[in-house]
Design brief:
It contains 17 helices and 22 strands. With about 550 residues, it is of the alpha+beta class. α11 packs parallel to α13 and α13 packs across α14. The structure holds flavin-adenine dinucleotide. The site of flavin-adenine dinucleotide has 38 residues, from α1 and β16.
């Protein structure tokens, strides 16, 4: 039976999920569908920063910096279980370099400065603080002397002349926050629907057909279609019968290192540094691993993108040059990932200078297609809420419907009812569930206020997973019951951080597969296929060979 819906959103990355939540909160009936898992595209491949984008000052994108710093400050309040402050250090190698080049870039030159001196960085940090003043919750910037910087981070190269320090934010589980937005949308609008692993098969005569993972066909008659397919946008528009050339993506990769000495030296800070070729790189403590990124290379195919050898060589060499007091080699890599930035098509501009701002071009109804298609182009992870708000307002005005709720101060998922005093919450949750307060505190950071039912399921006897005792069987069971897992990879790569932190072993994967089989009803063949597919994916695309 064909179902009438207000909005069909194709693509459940951060932009699709953010818009889904917003529209559902306004009382519209929406369907969001992703050909893979929620949050499995570019939204699973960022640097995991929620940041104002200090480097966009260089390209004069002041509007984007103003919006990003505001959204960063709001996310610190709305998703405190996932988004936390990140002290950042910028090593500086000269006092005055880069000023003429920065002025040229600001006024539209197509090359970026290769070196940024202390004067330039000090000016940039002051402007950044100015833009980040709305809803500020973090300290302002400072300039460290060389001696202060080397005392704080002893393995850093003595070539520095000073260091800038400021605060941005990091996100501990971007994949989970995408899912939490989808679940929040469903909570606000129970008539809406969210489908992962659902293929767009047909769009004719105003009717769109989707095939779900269990082969069920969903036929929908939407009033508006939103194409939120990120780097796949042009492919999806072609399938909808409205060919476009909106995207000119670039590939960016990251690696995660098992490196306790580096983690100790970082002491919770990020180093945001210029590599020898002038590109900006970063390294910080991500859930106990050192996350290093990123590259910016023209690339097109988001289905096969992976971090390659030259990128790994580049990262390791950049780290050796920045931190000569520490050793780096490939054996320390526990995981690697890559994604395509869905940037606007911009031929002839250096990848690092293509605008990171967003836009939402509309293909108006044409031929036998009665609905407009709104494509969500570009945008940053950080700015999803503002982007969603702009697009939702456009859709609401087309429907002549008022906005009911602002999402500006709306908590997300486990950020709802997040305790002002986490230690007290942990004590109380431990008392109610029988868990230790240390376990309660750890799960609060992972799931926010949604941790309570997991703690209650674990009680005083969490059963640890093989080779990953920070995760329990009861926790996996709860995720399987409540978080729309379809494939084994959904669970180990996105509902949990087991894969990205390299805490997954062969025995662990098998145990999780057995739990999934019992809860999702997989037979032996399906269980074996899931284990094989996940093992292959992790080895081929993420350099994670299970021991
Ligand atoms: C290397 C790198 C580092 C970055 N770092 C940061 C950072 O630190 N901070 C920040 O704010 N931003 C960062 N970004 C930017 C940010 O990650 C992206 O802008 C954002 O994730 C894009 O989200 P999206 O929802 O538009 O696309 P995606 O997340 O790619 O979502 C698109 C979805 O569409 C689905 N899809 C594809 N085809 C179909 C189809 N036919 N039918 C249905 N669904 C389909 C895909 O499966 C996918 O899930 C970074 C990006 C990269 C690549």
């Amino acid at each position: 039976m064909t179902r009438d819906v207000d909005v069909l959103i194709l693509g459940a990355g951060i932009n699709g999920a953010g818009l889904f939540r917003d529209l559902c909160e306004q009382g519209l009936t929406c369907v969001i569908a992703d050909k893979a898992d929620f949050g499995s595209g570019t939204s699973a491949a960022p640097s995991r920063l929620i940041h104002g984008g200090i480097k966009y000052l260089e390209t004069g994108e002041f509007r984007l910096v103003a919006q990003s710093t505001l959204e960063r400050n709001l996310l610190l309040q709305n998703a405190p279980h996932c988004v936390t402050p990140l002290a950042t250090v910028i090593p500086i190698f000269s006092w005055f370099r880069g000023i003429p080049a920065a002025l040229r870039t600001l006024f539209g030159a197509t090359t970026a400065p290769r070196a940024r001196g202390a004067v330039l960085i000090k000016a940039g940090l002051a402007i950044y603080d100015f833009y980040g003043r709305r809803h500020r919750v973090m300290p302002r910037h400072a300039l460290w002397s060389r001696a202060q910087a080397l005392q704080a981070i002893p393995p850093m190269t003595p070539r520095i002349v000073a260091a800038g320090t400021y605060y941005d934010a990091k996100i501990s589980n971007p994949e989970r926050l995408v899912l939490e937005l989808v679940l929040d949308g469903l909570r606000a609008s129970p008539a809406s629907q969210a489908l992962n692993h659902a293929e767009l098969t047909d769009a004719k005569g105003g009717i769109v057909t989707l095939r779900a993972h269990d082969s069920t066909l969903h036929t929908l008659r939407p009033r508006i279609v939103v194409n939120a397919a990120g780097p796949w946008i042009d492919q999806v528009n072609a399938r909808l019968g409205a060919p476009s050339k909106l995207i000119g993506g670039t590939k960016g990769s990251h690696i995660l290192l098992d490196h306790p000495d580096l983690i100790r030296a970082l002491d919770g800070r990020m180093i945001y540094f210029e590599a020898d070729d002038g590109r900006i790189c970063l390294v910080f403590d991500y859930l106990g691993r050192a996350l290093v990124g990123s590259t910016d290379i023209r690339a097109a195919d988001p289905d096969t993108v992976a971090c390659d050898e030259p990128e790994i060589g580049y990262f390791l060499q950049s780290l050796r040059s920045l931190l000569p007091g520490l050793g780096f080699d490939e054996s320390q890599i526990v995981y690697a990932y890559s994604g395509i930035r869905p940037l606007p098509n911009a031929d002839g501009i250096a990848p690092g200078l293509i605008s990171r701002d967003h836009s939402a071009p509309v293909a108006e109804p044409e031929g036998d297609r009665p609905w407009p298609i709104v494509s969500l182009v570009g945008g940053k992870w950080t700015t999803f809420r503002g982007f969603a708000e702009e697009v939702a307002d456009t859709i609401l005005s087309r429907f002549d419907t008022p906005r009911l709720i602002s999402t500006r101060h709306l908590p997300i998922g486990g950020g709802r009812d997040f305790p002002a005093d986490p230690a007290r919450w942990a004590k109380e949750a431990a008392r109610m569930s029988g868990a230790t307060h240390v376990r309660a505190g750890a799960l609060l950071l992972r799931y926010g206020s949604r941790a309570l039912p997991i703690l209650q399921a674990e009680g005083s006897a969490p059963v640890p997973l093989p080779d990953a005792d920070a995760w329990s069987e009861q926790e996996i069971g709860w995720l399987l019951h409540s978080e729309r897992v379809v494939q084994l990879a959904d669970l180990v790569m996105r509902r949990t951080s087991l894969a990205v932190t390299g805490h997954l072993s062969r025995a662990g994967l098998h145990r999780i597969a057995v739990l999934a089989a019992s809860i999702l009803g997989w037979d032996e063949d399906r269980t074996r296929d899931e284990i094989a597919a996940t093992t292959k994916l992790l080895a081929e695309r993420h350099r994670l060979t299970l021991a």
